[in-house]
Write a structure and sequence with these properties.
The chain has about 325 residues and is of the alpha/beta class. It has nine helices and 13 strands. The chain has one domain (about 15-305): Vaccinia Virus protein VP39 (Rossmann fold, 3-Layer(aba) Sandwich), CATH 3.40.50.150. The strands form three sheets. Strands 8-7-6-9-10-13-12 form a seven-stranded mixed sheet, with helices on both faces. The chain has a four-stranded antiparallel sheet with strand order 2-3-4-11, with no helix packed on it. Strands 1-5 form a two-stranded antiparallel ribbon.
Length: about 325
């Protein structure tokens, strides 16, 4: 079983064969991906997929998901080089560069640049920013198309595959990043176990995920109006929806000390009104003592620290 799914970016759904509705035989009913319980309380339905809250651990997840929910990332792309050509040639910045630099500054408050592994590296846009700031970078990306672009266009060390399969030794990295990745992961505990293995003592895992409080607020306010918001949950590819509490508990139960829970700047994509609303809401959340607990926070950043290794006993 693969330990992680997803990428830090996407080419867009124009290359995916999404459908507007799915039959039951196209879906897989699953237990809670965090605690394994079969105690769901259904919350919503999107394109025939059911989103539920686990009554065992409280996490929200896609209870009836697509059997191959991440398959579109593996499809060969013909327009990707053209779409990103100006970025590859250094003529234009990537829309997320501001976000990537913010993530790196937050990490650099905790430790100096060292060995960084990015999981779900896409075409290497985040990694090339990290390398410019002095990090020694490496990446893992399941898509053969985008990992090849990272190698060819940016000369980055991005391995094609999944973390458990690429053979990194234990205690190899100072930081592991998962940016817009963990919500795609079928078995997050297994993945975080691998992350803990490849991190050195005192190393950090950096995670950015959508805030389920924001997603649910959108659904309750706007999602039930036909045609207004058709893809509130991204249920066709998002498998788990985290709050600050469920994400912190997952990290702690995976052996990490939660060091930071913060509201990052939202991705500035879409029209002017959308960007303004997202930016204003996130700004309010960042200034509030409630922070990531507010539904105005579009996303959550969490940083977990691996505990120091115990000293050997005196003989």
């Amino acid at each position: 079983m693969n330990t992680e799914r997803g990428s830090t970016g996407r080419f867009g759904h124009s290359e995916a064969t999404w459908k507007e509705s799915y039959r039951s035989d196209e879906l897989l009913a699953v237990a809670c991906p965090i605690c394994g319980a079969h105690e769901p309380k259904d919350l919503a339905e999107e394109f025939g997929l059911t989103i539920a809250r686990c009554l065992g651990c409280g996490v929200v997840y896609t209870r009836t998901r697509l059997i191959h929910s991440q398959a579109h990332y593996d499809a060969p792309s013909t327009n990707a080089p053209k779409k990103y050509d100006a970025i590859f040639k250094g003529k234009r910045k990537h829309p997320r560069d501001v976000n990537y630099d913010e993530h790196l500054r937050l990490l650099e408050r905790l430790l100096p640049p060292g060995d960084l592994l990015d999981i779900g590296s896409h075409a290497g846009f985040f990694l090339r920013r990290a390398r410019e700031r002095g990090w020694r970078t490496c990446g893992v990306e399941p898509s053969a198309t985008t990992s090849e672009l990272a190698r060819e266009q940016f000369r980055l060390d991005v391995r094609t595959g999944f973390l458990a399969d690429v053979g990194f030794p234990s205690d190899r990295f100072d930081v592991v990043t998962l940016i817009d990745v963990l919500e795609h992961v079928e078995e997050p505990r297994r993945l975080l176990g691998e992350v803990a293995r490849v991190l050195r003592a005192g190393g950090r895992v950096f995670i950015k995920v959508p805030n389920v409080r924001y997603v649910l607020a959108k659904f309750h306010l706007l999602g039930r109006v036909p045609g207004l918001l058709e893809d509130v949950f991204d249920a066709r590819e998002h498998l788990v929806y985290y709050s600050d509490r469920t994400l912190a508990r997952l990290l702690e139960e995976s052996g990490f000390e939660v060091e930071i829970l913060a509201v990052p700047s939202p991705i500035q994509a879409g029209g002017l009104l959308r960007r303004t609303l997202r930016g204003t809401g996130a700004g309010v959340a960042r200034r509030s003592h409630l922070g990531v607990r507010l539904p105005l926070a579009t996303d959550i950043v969490a940083i977990g620290r691996t505990p120091p290794k115990p000293l050997p006993a005196c003989s």
